[in-house]
Amino acid sequence: MGRPGTGSSTESVAAVKEFDDYDRVAVVTGADSGIGRASAIRLAEAGFDVGVTYHEDEEGIRRTESEIREIGRRVAVRRHDLAEPQHGAEAVTEMIDELGGVGVLVNNAGTGSSEHLLDTDYARWREVLAVDLDAPFLCSQIAGRHMRDAGRGGRIINITSVHEDYPRVTAGAYCTAKGGLKLLTRTLALELGLYGITVNAVAPGEIATPMTGQHEQPPELDSRAGYPIPRPGHAYEVAEAVAFLARPESSYVTGSSIFVDGGLSLMGPQAGGDLQDATWRAG
Question: Residue 22 catalytic?
Answer without folding.
Answer: no
